[in-house]
Amino acid sequence: MAVGVSFRPGELEVRPDGSGNLLGSRCRSCGAHFFPVREVCSGCLSDDMETVGFSTRGTLYTYSVVRQSTPAFEVPYALGYVDFPEGVRIMGQISGCEIDEIGIGMPMVLSLEPFGEDEEGNSLTGYRFSPAEGIDQETDNE
After folding, report:
1. Per the omega criterion (within 30 degrees of 0), is the bond before 76 cis?
2. pLDDT score, position 17
3. What are the CB-based long-range contacts (under 8 Å, 24+) for 90-97?
4. Domain-by-domain residue ranges, the chain?
5. Rounded to an integer, what distance in angstroms lies between the CA atom of residue 78 and that of residue 103?
6. Three-class SS of residue 101?
7. What is the rounded CA–CA span in Å between residue 129 and residue 35?
8. Looking at the DSSP assignment, which residues form a beta bridge with residue 115?
9. pLDDT at position 28
10. Residue 110, pLDDT score
11. For FRET with 52, which of 14, 33, 90, 105 sits at 20 to 30 Å CA-CA?
12. For residues 118 and 114, what is the distance between their CA atoms, to the nearest angstrom?
């Protein structure tokens, strides 16, 4: 797999081996997590924040099927919110299954996928969420 440039710099870390993590913030004062990266904690208003990589596995909180979109996106497709162990809920497109196979509460895994090219011709990498069934259980990065 050719490694590309992150489609969302600062929100997605792509490593040379093609793996990666979504990036967010953790408040050093109260421990709250946020996505995307923030400079100030909305819980305790501290500015003592650090950038962290989130787990690659979560649980589907809810989803919606998009049946009408711009010409750049083939319809129908599903968008969902995934809850992560760090306490964040992140929205993304769902791939790797048929729409009628999607169910609230299903385990999901972060999937890094090509999203076209930038102006310099570099491959852009973005993220989607896919069902976690059938994927080897591996240790998440922190």
Report:
1. yes
2. 82
3. 90/22, 90/35, 90/54, 90/58, 92/127, 92/128, 92/129, 93/128, 93/129, 94/60, 94/63, 94/128, 94/129, 94/130, 95/128, 95/129, 95/130, 96/128, 96/130, 96/131, 97/130, 97/131
4. 11-131
5. 11
6. helix
7. 16
8. none
9. 97
10. 95
11. 105
12. 11
**Token pair recorded at residue 5:** 């440039």
Q: Phi then psi for 137, rounded to 5 degrees?
A: -75, 115
Span 47-94, pLDDT tens digits: 999 999 999 999 999 999 999 988 888 899 999 999 999 999 999 999
Q: Dihedrals φ, ψ of 101, to 5°?
A: -95, -10
How many angstroms separate the most distant Cα atoms in the chain? 45
β-strands 107-117, 57-66 pairing: antiparallel
Place of tokens 């995934």: 82
pLDDT at 134 over 60: no
Q: Which residues contact 16 (CB under 8 A, 6 or more apart)?
A: 3
Amino acid at 129: F
Backbone φ/ψ region at 122: left (φ over 0), alpha (ψ -120 to 50), beta: beta
* Residues shown for the chain: 142
